[in-house]
């Protein structure tokens, strides 16, 4: 289990009137991987970028798996809880107050973002998931997600995150009350420049909505 205060991570405060992006890298990545995305997604925003706590053949991951696309669901649940605890610690440690936190994950990072959004909406209510899939197969979800907003970006020919699984997670999120934006492009696993533009526009609309409300 990862101790929250000792969790390797990067933090940048950003402007006080901006959201904080929770940057969650993919398998084999580090806390530095998604930093170039931050300024493109939300100029001037803060970011919180932790490192995946699980090691698989020397690669950082967010939870264990039994094989490609076959997740250790018990570990997914455990690690989502640990990430939620880390976010709670970071909010207090960095005096984030009521600043909006938006998870931004790629691949394995998208999956832990979705798992945490599904299980701990009080910690992750808003998320951008690039090349993610449903991470809690076989588990019933009974959380109220009526305050959550999730943007899914997937490739139609993604062998690592099959589209039917992405459709499934979107449907489950919606069934629990979340607002879901689905975006499907041609191609496979990865983050396409058009998806970055789409995610940036979505984040802008999300923050403006709060301002106008």
Brief overview:
The protein is an alpha/beta fold.
The CATH topology is what?
Answer: Rossmann fold
One letter per element, helices H and strands E, the order comes to: EEHEEEEEHEHEEHEH
Q: What is the number of beta strands?
A: 11
Helical fraction equals 25-40%
Strand neighbour order, sheet with most strands: 1-3-2-8-9-10-11
Please state roughly what percent of the residues sit in beta strands, choosing from under 5%, 5-15%, 15-25%, 25-35%, 35-45% or over 45%: 15-25%
Largest pleated sheet: 7 strands, mixed
| CATH-scheme architecture | 3-Layer(aba) Sandwich
Query: Spans of 5+ residues with little confidence (pLDDT < 50)?
Result: none
Number of helices: 5
Plain-language structure description:
Strands 1-3-2-8-9-10-11 form a 7-stranded mixed β-sheet, sandwiched between helices. A two-stranded antiparallel sheet has the order 4-5. The N and C termini lie far apart (40 Å). Helices cover 34% and strands 23% of the residues. The chain has a single domain, classed as Rossmann fold (3-Layer(aba) Sandwich), CATH 3.40.50.1820. Helix 2 crosses helix 3. The protein contains 5 helices and 11 strands; from the N terminus they run ββαβββββαβαββαβα. By secondary structure, it is of the alpha/beta class. It is globular and about 40 Å long. This is Alpha/beta hydrolase. Belongs to the AB hydrolase superfamily. AB hydrolase 2 family. Pfam families: Abhydrolase_2. Keywords: Hydrolase. GO terms for molecular function: hydrolase activity.
